[in-house]
């Protein structure tokens, strides 16, 4: 409280009920936040049977690029969104990633996060089912 009195006027401090001091997160906690954000992405892809394979260097890359001294771990969600979710969405729209695929997230030599699609070995995975009774189905 003494330090706050050095910076803030008494009129402001009298309006505050309490002051909470937040310490910097240690690296293991930051990596847990990364894992939580990646789980959110995985959950969004689950209905399409798309699995994420994120290795430890990629997780550390996300932690390093998502952590800021000023905002602590709050920026991790934004980094996961811009460097994982947006590129995944583009690949889904271009159909380079399809239902049933395994997507690997790795760090390349240039300290760049790469999203690599890895096709399922089952050629029927991700293909639409053919309905012979459909009126647009051609008889061969």
Describe the structure.
The chain has 140 residues and is of the alpha+beta class. It has a domain at 48-118: Helicase, Ruva Protein, domain 3, CATH 1.10.8. Helix content is 41%, strand content 11%. The protein is built from 5 helices and 3 strands. A 3-stranded mixed sheet has the order 1-2-3. A hairpin with a 5-residue loop joins strand 2 (102-107) and strand 3. Helix 3 (27-45) packs across helix 4, helix 3 (27-45) runs parallel beside helix 5 (76-93) and helix 4 (56-66) crosses helix 5 (76-93). The longest helix is centred in the N-terminal third of the chain and has 19 residues, at 27-45. It starts with a helix and ends in a 22-residue tail after the last strand.
Summarize the topology.
Layout: H1 2-7, H2 10-13, H3 27-45, E1 51-54, H4 56-66, H5 76-93, E2 102-107, E3 113-118
Parallel strand pairs: 1-2
Antiparallel strand pairs: 2-3
Helix pairs in contact: 3-4, 3-5, 4-5
Structure summary:
The protein is α+β, with helices and mostly antiparallel strands and 140 residues long. It has 5 helices and 3 strands. α3 crosses α4, α3 (27-45) runs parallel beside α5 (76-93) and α4 crosses α5.
Order of helices and strands: HHHEHHEE
Measured between the Cα atoms of the first and last residue, the distance is 82 Å
Stretches with pLDDT under 50, minimum 5 residues: 121-128
Which oligomeric state applies?
A: single chain
CATH architecture field of the domain at 48-118 = Orthogonal Bundle
Q: Give the overall shape, derived from the CA principal axes.
A: elongated
User: Which fold name corresponds to the CATH topology of the domain at 48-118?
Assistant: Helicase, Ruva Protein, domain 3
Q: How is the main sheet built? A: 3 strands, mixed
In DSSP terms, counting alpha (H) and pi (I) runs of 4 or more, how many helices?
Answer: 5
Query: How many strands appear in the DSSP assignment?
Result: 3
Going by helix content, strand content and strand pairing, the class is alpha+beta
């Amino acid at each position: 409280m003494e330090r706050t009195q050095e910076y803030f006027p008494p009129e402001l401090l009298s309006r505050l009920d309490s002051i909470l001091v937040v310490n910097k997160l240690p690296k293991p906690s930051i990596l847990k936040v990364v894992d939580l954000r990646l789980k959110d992405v995985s959950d969004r892809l689950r209905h399409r049977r798309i699995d994420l394979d994120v290795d430890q260097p990629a997780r550390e890359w996300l932690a390093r690029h998502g952590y800021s001294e000023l905002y602590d771990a709050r920026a991790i969600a934004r980094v996961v969104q811009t460097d994982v979710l947006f590129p995944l969405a583009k690949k889904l729209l271009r159909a380079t990633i399809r239902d049933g695929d395994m997507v690997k997230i790795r760090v390349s030599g240039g300290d760049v996060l790469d999203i690599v699609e890895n096709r399922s070995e089952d050629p029927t995975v991700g293909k639409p089912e053919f309905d012979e009774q459909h009126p647009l189905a051609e008889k061969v």
